[in-house]
Design a protein that fits this description.
The complex is a heterotrimer.
Chain A (H helix, E strand, L loop, with lengths): L1 H7 L7 E2 L12 H25 L9 H14 L1 H7 L8 H4 L9 H32 L2 H10 L8 H34 L11 H28 L6 H32 L4 H9 L3 H25 L4 H27 L11 E2 L12 H21 L4 H5 L1
Antiparallel strand pairs in A: 1-2
Helix pairs in contact in A: 2-3, 2-4, 2-8, 2-9, 2-13, 2-14, 3-6, 3-14, 6-7, 6-8, 8-9, 9-10, 9-13, 10-12, 12-13
Chain B lengths: L1 H6 L3 H23 L12 H8 L16 H9 L7 H5 L3 H5 L16 H4 L46 H8 L8 H4 L4 H5 L12 H8 L36
Chain C lengths: L1 H29 L1 H4 L1 H9 L14 E6 L8 H10 L10 E9 L4 E4 L18 E10 L7 H5 L5 E3 L5 E3 L9 H5 L6 E2 L6 E2 L5 H4 L6 H5 L5 E5 L6 H8 L2 E2 L11 E4 L7
Parallel strand pairs in C: 1-11
Antiparallel strand pairs in C: 1-9, 2-3, 2-4, 5-6, 7-8, 10-11
Classes of the chains: A mainly alpha, B mainly alpha, C alpha+beta.
Amino acid sequence: METIVKELFPLLKEITGYIYPNEIELQWGILVVVYPYVTGLVAGAFILASLVKVFNVQELQPTYRMSLLTALAFVIVAPLPLLAHLGHPERSFEIFFTPNTRSAMAMFGFVYAWYLMAVLLLEIWFDYRGDIILWVKTEKGWRKWIHKIISLFSKDTSERALRFDKKAVKVITIIGIPSAFLLHGYVGFIFGSVKANPWWSSVLMPIVFLFSAIVSGIALLLLIYMVVTPLRAKEIDMACLDKLASYLFYVMIIDFSLEALDFIHRIYESEESIKILAELFSGKLFVSLIVIQLLIGMLIPLGAIASVKMFRTPGELKKLIYFVSALLVQVGIFTTRWNVVVGGQLFSKSFRGLMVYKMTFFGLEGLLTSIGLLLLPFIILYILFNILPPWEKAREA
Amino acid sequence: MKSLWGKIPEQIPRLSVLLVILVVLFIVVRSRLVPPDFGKYGHYRASAVDEIISQEIRYAGHEVCAECHDDVVGAKKAGYHKNVACEVCHGPAVAHTEDPGSVELRAPRARRYCPLCHEYRPSRPTGFPQIVSNSHNPMKPCITCHDPHDPKPPVTPKECHACHGAIARTKSLSHHVYVPCTRCHETPDEHKVRPRIVVASKPKTREFCGECHAKDAPSEKSIPRVDLATHGERYVCWQCHYPHLPEAR
Amino acid sequence: MMESLKDKSKNSVARRNFIKKLTFFCTSLLIPSFVNSREKSEKAKKWVLTNGYSPAEHYWGMGVAINKCIGCGRCVDACKRENNVPREPFFFKTWVERYRIFKDSETIVDSPNGAINGFEYPRVEKKAIIRSFFVPKLCNQCNNPPCVQVCPVGATFKAEDGVVLVDSNYCIGCGYCIQACPYGARYLHPVTQTADKCTFCYHRITNKMIPACVEVCPTQARIFGEIKKKASPLVRFMRMNKIGILKPSLNTEPKVYYANLDMEVK
C-alpha cells in the first residue's frame, strides 16, 4: 500500500484542470498496452498464414508454417501481461468458470480457448502430423518422444490419411479467419464498448484494431523471415518478400483510412468531449500520436514501400527499405496501442482535466516486465522452430 | 459396424480422446473451484452479501445519544443546531455506546473546527450564518461566546453582513456600496431572531428605484438615468438588474 | 361460427405455447443461465439475510439538495471513518466538488483532498463570479450499471434492493469496472487490491440505519430513503424539487437524484 501511495503523491502536482479524485491512479499501464499488441501480432500472423491456404497465394508458401508457429508463440504469451496486471492473479480462473456473459472481458476465456485449441493447435497438428510421423522413424532419445506425444502417437501415413490432413487444414483455416478476426476484433470491443470513455467508445474500434493487427502481423513475419533465412544460410526468396511487402502496403492503406475516418468523424461531430481530447492531442499525446504513430509508424513506411514499388530498386536496397519499414511499423503499432490504452486514461471523465502516467521501470507492472514479455515469444518461437522446423527441407527429411 | 469404424480417419478418435479428457478435466476442476452458492440468486456469490453486511458499524446514529445525554440533546433540539447530529462534531460513537467508561469521544474545542461550516465562502448558500474568522474575535475559541449545543449569538447581530456575507461583499465592490441595506429592505427586528420566518422586504415599485434613477430625480448627476415611461415597463427594476452589483457602469 | 372461432383460438394458443416451449428449450441449450433466471428471481424475492433484512422489500435511493450543501466535508470524513477507506487523497467513496462559474463562462471546479477538510477560499478571485455552489458526489447506484455489465467474473452486482455491491473476496482486480464507471466513483483499494466504492453503507441500511454521510450532514443536503414506497423522505424530496441526474445521455439511470443541478456539473 505504501508504495502505491508514495507513487501517487507527486502526481497530484502534475494534474491540469479538475479530475475526479479517484482518477489519479491509472488502472491500466504498459502491461495492458502489451496485451493488445501481442494479440494483434497473433491475429495478423494467422491471417497471413490463411492467405496461403485459402487464397492460394503461392509466393507466400515459405512463410506459411512460420506464421502459424509465430501465432502460437505469441498466443501463449498473450494472457501473461493481463495476468500480471490483475490485483488477484490467483483468482483469474474465475473468468473461465463463472464468466459474466454480458462482459466483453469475460468472453476472453471463450475466444482465447477457441482460438488456441480449436484453431491454432488443430491446424498445426494436422499440418505437421504427416511430417512428425516421418521424423519419429529416424529420431532417437527425447526428441523422438516429444514428437510421438505431439502427434498423439499417430502412425497412419496412408494416402487417405494425408488427404484428410490437407482437407482438415483447409476447413480449419476457413473457420480460422473469422476466428482471428474475432480474437482481435473482440480486443477492440473491450475498449470500444466503454461508453464512459469517449476516446475509446467507437464502433470503429474493433475494425481499426483488426486491421492494425494484420499490419503488425505481416510486418513481424517479414522481419522474422528476413532474420531467420540468412541465419540458416539460405537465400531470401525475393518474390515472397515482395508479396509480403505488397500485402503490408495494402493493409496499411486500409488501416490508415479507417484511422483517418475515426479521427475526422470525431472532429466533425465535435461532441462534448472534443475540447479535452483536443487538449490531449495537442499536448500529452502529440509526440506519440502525431509524430510516432502517424508520421514514423504510418506515413514514412507507406511512402518508402510505395517508392520501392514505383521505382526500380536494387535488391539489397529493397531489402533494407522493407526491413526498416517493417521495424517502423512495429514501433507505430505499439504506440497505436499505447495511445488507445494509456491515452484513454489521461483525461478525466469530468472532461475538465488531464492526468499523468508515470511508468515504473522495475516491478511487476514496470517497463522491464513488459520488455521481458515482448522477448518471451521469440524464445518460445526459437524452441518451436527447433521442435517443429517449418522449413521446406524438413518435409523431405 | 467394424467397417464403419474403419472408415473414420485415425486422427478423429485420437483428437476426440484428447477433447474428452480436456472437457472432463474442465468440469471436474470447475465443480471444485466455483463457490457452491455462486449464482444462487444472480450472477454472484450469495454469501458475499452477508459478508458485506457484517462490516463493523462506527456511527451510532442520532437517536442513541439521548438515552444518556437527554439534557444536552433536549437543549440542542430547541436551537439552531437541532438538525446537526451529535456525531458530526463528536465523531463516530458506537465504541463509546458499547463502553462509555473507557471510550471517550472527542469534543473539538479548537477555533479552527467551527469555521469548517461557518467560515465565509462565496459558494455557500446565502443566509447560512458565516463569519470571517480573521476579523471575528481572532484568538478567542468559538465556545467562549457560543454554546455549540444552543448556538444563538450572544448578541443579536446588528449588521446585515453577519449572515449575508456574500451579498455584503458583492455590494462592497459595486456602485451601491454606500447605499445601506435598510434603504431598500425593511427589516423587522424579528428577522434577526427568526430569519426564515420573518423575512426582509424587497422594493415593490419601479418608482422606488426611480427616486434616484428617474430622469427628473433630484439625485447626484453622475447616477445613470432611465426614462421610467419607456424603459422595461413590465418589470420591477430588480427583476432584470441585480441591485447588489448593478451591471451598468 | 362461434365454435370454430373458439377452436381456432384454442389451437393457436396451443401452438403458441408449443413455440414458446421450443424456443425456451433451444435457448436453454445455448445459455444455461437463462433457463433458471426466472426461477432465481423468484427465489431472490424470498431471500432473507442473516440479520433479518429481506432485500427484495426495499429499493434505495439518495437525494442531494445542492443549494443546501455548505461544503464542510463532514460527509467525506464520516464516510472514510465508517468504511475504512484509506485516508490518502486518492481513494473516495464520496467527495464534494466546488463549482465557480465566472462571468466569461469559464468554470473552475476543485475538490482539494475530496473536501475532507472543507475548502479554502482563494483570497483574491481574479474575475467576477456569477454563480458558485458545492456538489456532493458518490456512486450513483445506477439502475443500469455499466460497472456490473463489464465485470468479467460476477464480483460486482446489483442487489435486489438496487444497491450495487462489490464482492471483495471474488474480485480479481482487473480494473475494468473502474474504467466503465462514468462518474469516477470507483477505485482500486490499495490493501485488498480489489475494486471498491460506495455501498450506501449497506451494513447500516440493512440494520435500519441511514448511511454515515446522511447521518452527519449538518444541513440535510443528503436525503436517503425508499424510492418505491408510497411515502419516504426521498419520495417527499422528489415531489418537492425539480430533479436532475448526472450524465443522463449515458442511460445509466442513476438513483442519486440532484435538486437544483447546474448544467456545468458532470
